[in-house]
Amino acid sequence: MKRIMAACLEQTAHFLIKEDLPHEAAVRAVRAEYEHYQNQMRRNRTEFRVLEELEQSDGSLVVKLKKQYNSYDCGPYMEEA
Predict the structure, then answer these.
(1) Sequence spans of domains, the chain
(2) Which residues make Cβ contacts (< 8 Å) with residue 55, sequence separation at least 6?
(3) In terms of CB atoms within 10 Å, which of 14, 18, 39, 63 comes out highest?
(4) Per-residue confidence at 81, pLDDT binned at 50, 70, 90?
């Protein structure tokens, strides 16, 4: 029998711009979507840490992060780079 002691996900999320919007509005929408994503994790009490945010030349955003898996303890994973 096994028991999971700690679990953490490392993700890379690409927040894409919407092609049907003017460029400035699309960039604002990407930022709003990213903020909504972070707020949703906070509301759900999901532990997370942003490792890197990379704005692309087209205005989209690539975010590398570590986040809690389900409700498992993250253990030492959050401290590791």
Answers:
(1) 8-78
(2) 61
(3) 63
(4) low
